[in-house]
Amino acid sequence: MFSWVKNLIGHARGIGGCLRCGDRWNWKPLHATMYTTSRGCFPLCGSCWRGAGPGEIERYYSELVRRWRQDGSFYDQEFEDHLIEVALKEKGF
Ligand SMILES: [Zn+2]
After folding, report:
1. pLDDT, tens digit, for every residue of 42-93?
2. N vs C: which end of the chain shows fewer Cβ within 10 Å?
């Protein structure tokens, strides 16, 4: 099946996706970053994670936190900085 068809199905079901390429989690493998022992987030799919530079990591993880704030969750700047730091470390930057 074409990826745009699969993305359309994911969109219709309200399934989120990669902030970089837009592919949805109903079919695309994601990359989870654990920021506590039990909590993780996944702004990027596996292939975008592998291809992302430090600037992109910062941009997309920051974008994710911004979206959480829009959804009414409280995540402060300290949390955002911590999350980006964890992701950069995980990536080896
Ligand atoms: Zn992607």
Report:
1. 999 999 999 999 999 999 999 999 999 999 999 999 999 999 999 999 999 9
2. N
Contact 69, 54 (CB under 8 A): no
* Distance from chain centroid for Cα 66: 12
Cα-to-chain-centroid distance, residue 84: 11
Beta-carbon-side half-sphere exposure of residue 9 (alpha carbons within 13 Å): 10
CA of 78 to the centre of ligand 1 (A): 26
CA of 61 to the centre of ligand 1 (A): 13
Rounded CA-CA distance 38/31 in Å is 15
Q: Would you kindly state where each structural domain of the chain is located, as residue ranges?
A: 3-91
Centre of ligand 1 to C-alpha 18, Å, is: 5
Q: How far is the CA of 17 from the centre of ligand 1 (A)?
A: 8
